[in-house]
Every structure is written in structure tokens, then in C-alpha cells.
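Notes from the pairing session

We agreed to fold both candidates in a single pass and log them together. This is the raw record for the first candidate, unedited. Please don't reformat it; downstream parsing expects exactly this layout.

Candidate A
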Amino acid sequence: MKNTVLIDFDGVIRHWSSTELDKYVASLGLERNPLNACAFSERHLLPAITGGISHEEWCDNVRFDLSKEYGQDVAEELVKKWYSLEAEIDYEFLTKIRNQLSFGQLVLVTNATSRLNKDLHSVGLEGEFDEVINSSEIGVAKPALNYFHIALNKLGVSEDDCIFIDDTPKNVEAARSLGIESLLHSNTQETLKFIVEKCE
């Protein structure tokens, strides 16, 4: 029986919609949204999620690159809108997980920037998880195997004690390669069933 659930954040618990940003992009007269390709390129994203730069510095770097092609004003407006976007949190899903884990621990394992603690506080999730393993705080991001080694060591548990849930195939494959029973998240019903089967 497992006693530790390692669960991803974005795409599992927190969900972002592109609709609002796409509409804003169109209002600026742009035919396509250039922000995501820029911001989530490895060159910009990796330093932000491994602690090399802060969330604010990440935004500054993206703004600078966008300004070279679209001008300072458009770049400023795009990044300002991006920074202010709000995501939806699946509170019901979290409650159901908690109901299955009266004896175990729920650990957030996420590739996130320095803004994560602020984000958790703003949506009422501060203290909701027994532990938070943030890639930007430990200096390494999933799917690197060392991410999982650091997480397990910090939690004081073994691979056999855990299950891992993520919506990114490479992250799931990495965890499985270490012997952690893992699920590629596609819907809450399947994920809850997985938790019940492994943790009861």
C-alpha cells in the first residue's frame, strides 16, 4: 500500500485557458499569439523553472524578445496581459483526493517559477499540500531523474512508497524508470480510481 501521492499542478489541478489571451492578441491586431512560443521555449523557460532567474526576470526576457519583432508597446501589453491571467483550480478534485488519503501525504511536485508560493496563496491552496517540491527551488526540473531523487530524499520515502500523477508523458516515463508507479493524467475519474487502488 502506498502512502505518498506525488501530483503535478498545471494540467492536473490548475488549468489555464488560452481563450482570453488569444482574444487579447487579436485586439492588438496580431494574426497569431507569439507569446507562448517565446515564453515556453527552452531558452526562456528552463532558467525560470530551475531557479536561474525569477518569474519577473522571465517576463522581462520574454518582453525584450517580443519587442524586437513586434515593438515595445505590443510586447509590453502582451506580457502585462499574460502576467495577469488567472487559472481555474479543481478544488473538488483536491477534496476527493484528500478524502482518500486520511493516512497518507499529498505532495505537489511541479515545474514552477519563483511565483509559485504567491500563486498558491492567492487561490487558497497555501498549506493544502503536505509538502511542495518546486523545481525552481531545488534547481532541477522534471523529467530529470535527479528531480525525483531530490523529492524522495526530502520526503524521506522510497520509490515503493509513492505514486506519481502527471499530464506530461516524459515526466511519467521518467518516474516509472525509477520504479515509481505512475499515471498519465487524462481525467479526474481515472486518476481518483488509480489513487484508491494504490493507496487503500
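Candidate B (folded immediately after A)
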Amino acid sequence: MKLSEDFLWGGAISASQTEGNYLADGKRPSNFDQLPLNNQRLKPVFKEDNDNILKNQKDEIFPGRFGIDFYHTYKKDIELLSELGINSFRFSISWSRLFPTGEEKEPNKVGLAFYDDIVTELEKYKIEPIITISHFEIPMHLVEAYNGWEDRRVVDFYVHYAKCLMEHFNNRIKYWIPFNEMNMVLHIPFVGGGIQFSEKRNNLEIQYQAAHHQLLANALTVSIGKKINSEFSFGTMLAAGKTYAYTCKPEDVFASLKSDRDNLFFADVQVFGEYPTYTEHFFEEKNIKIKMAVEDKKILKENTVDFVSFSYYSSACTSADEEGLETVATNGFNTLKNPYLPKSTSVWQNDPLGLRITLNQLYDRYRLPLFIVENGLGTQDILEDGKVNDDYRINYLNEHIKNLVLAVQQDGIPLMGYLMWGIIDLTSVSEGRISKRYGVLYVDQDDEGHGSHERYKKESFYFYQKVIASKGLSVFE
């Protein structure tokens, strides 16, 4: 089995990490615009904490507010991506650029025109647009007035926004991802759901209530979208990566099973249309009472997704007893260090075979087409004489692409495509630093937004260009 002729080779970015210009042309602030350039940005925001990120903003730098100026550079950036040879490009819409407070009846025409122009540029170069409707972004007004996704009324605001988008781009967009990495609402609740905690409440309950509202909004978006255009294709999107047991001790194996189960909870609901059976005991044990309307279960059941898209950066590792064991960072949270994986120049461990394992895990579970919509290496690069020799990134991409090809050829996985994350350097979610670079295009800019902002092709640009032209076969040379 070979990669299909219509295999989607491309890259991905998000609005909040690239566009900048956060108050331009009628846009108002989002939750992401409040994240400072420091190590506090992903911690839960407690209302009672006078030192939280929302109350101490006078002397801070906010990378999301300036991004990489994609708001003005998108034409040149897309031209460079066309030269790279991609046939698909995933980007997100800024909710607060279209509906500045989230409660408006009509969209901001200037904001809508901006996304019109992006899609027009992609059409010009025959690049398939893939839209993420909400990528870690919610209007700040909805955070302040409703505590983000905790409040059911936000479902209606989101669905109105999504409907507007789908009606406007009816015959121009096929692939829709309603939410980016929905499972991150459990790990980074302010970023993933615009949620502020309180020391007086059951905050885990708040997270799962917000999760229910996002799952409901996802299903309602599918329902409305299919009525607008039956050819629309909708995907779940989760932060994925198989969780290994630290040892073959049965207790460790069961701990890894539970970790995978918790991580895949959101995709389970979106694919199967119902809550997994284990959640009943889990909610009872944690004193979680989810408020559901009578019709919610029916809505979830009747409006499932068409494909499973996911991000993969590395695998995870767990044990029944983690005390005294070394931990490392992975995508949005910490995990046990796997002693069998080599050191990496990135913040996470390099596990390309883990991508193939994850592909098999997801297909065995869901039996739907899969789509890798994020994969890449975030690390520091050095620009010298207009060049970046990033052989470490080339090695990372080569080994991961090799494993996805093998998953298709030898394991029979129906894979829709592969999108490199941060194909243009952008400000990272975890640190807000552009110096944690992902792209094959280097942006001459420092963490505080200073620089020429010129784009330079890294050595990985030419590597990925060759991979695409060879339909993935060059990785075996």
C-alpha cells in the first residue's frame, strides 16, 4: 500500500501564535493575548491569587500580541510555502477577530475579509485550506463574563461563530477542525478553555463541565455544518502519544492503560457519540456532577466526526508509583523520562517509532481515517549568513515521516496527510518564545519581537521539499 495520490502534505500554524496585531481593525483581546513571556503562562489561573497572570501585566511582554506579523506577511509566507511544494495548509481563525466580544450578532467585516484573502491566496497556489475554528483562543470578554467554557451560554456564542464561518466559506473549505487539542482543557485550563479556578470550588468538575460544553459545541457544529454542505468533513483533534508502562509490572501496565484512556476520552465521545462507561465511576469518585440538558446525549450520538486528527511530538511514560522517578516535559504536561529514548535537542524525548505505535493505537480504536495535523521539533536555531543548518530537525522529520510511511505500507493505516507544526517559526504555547523554533522558514525575530522579521529558508526547507516531491520515499534513501 502506498500513500494516496491525494495525500495531504503541508504545514500548520495558529492565529494566536502568528497573526499579532491583536487590536487591529476591530479585534479585541483573547485569552491567549494575556499570556506573558514567562514560566507562569500555563499555570491555572486562580481568582483569589493576587499574583496570577491576569492581575500583573504592567511590565510584561505578551508574545501573542505581536506574533510574527502574519496579519501583514501572509501573502509572502504563502508564496514561500507554495515554493516548498505543500498542497495543504492548516490555520486557525481568531474568534475575537470576527466576533470581538463573542456576543455580536454580525461578524467584523474587516476580520472576515482578512480570512477571505488568506483562502484566496491558498486557492491561487492550489493549496487545500484546513480550518481550525478554535485553537486555544476565546474572546477575553467571554472569559471575564462567563468564566469561559464553564458556562453553557458560551456554546451558543461559539456555534453562532462557527455557523457564520461555514456559511461564508461554504464551497471553499472542505476540512474543518472545531477545536484544537480539546484534551488540553484538563492540562492547561486557561489556555484550553478560558477557565479561571477558585479555591472554594471543585475545579476538576469545572474542567469536565467545560469539556462537556466543548464536546456539545463540536457536535452542534457538525450538525449545522452537514446541513450547510454535506461534503464538509469534520475531525476531532487531540494531543496524542502512546503512554508506555515504565516496567512490565502489572500495576504499571494498568497505569499506562488508564493514562491512555483519560487522554482519549474526548476523541471517544466525538467518535462514538457517548461518554465511555468508566466515566460514571470516575465522576462519582471525584464528586463531579456534569450538568447536561435532556437533549445533549442525542446531539452527541447523532453528530460524530468523520476523521481523527491529532498532534504527535513524543510518547509518554507512566508508573503506578512515580515517586523518585525523573520526569521530562511533553506536549503540555510532564511525563516520566523513558530510559530507552535518547536525549534530544528539544524539550521532549525523541520517539519516532512512537508515532507508528500511536497511529496503530488510534486506528485499532476508532476505525476512521487518521490525519497527523501537528508534528515537529521545537528547539533553538542559529542564523548565520542567511542560512540555518538544522540537521537535528531534518533527522527528527526524516524518522517520523519514515514511520508514518511504514504505518501505511505495512500496517494498512488509512492516513489522510501529514502537516508539520509551526512550518513558519512562531511563538510557542508553552513558553511564548519564538526562540523555541519549529519551522522550515526562519523568522528573524527575537523573543521580545525585535528583528528584521525577514524569512529565511532553513536546510530543513529543502529536505521537506524533496520529501513532498518524492511522495515520502526520499526518507528511505
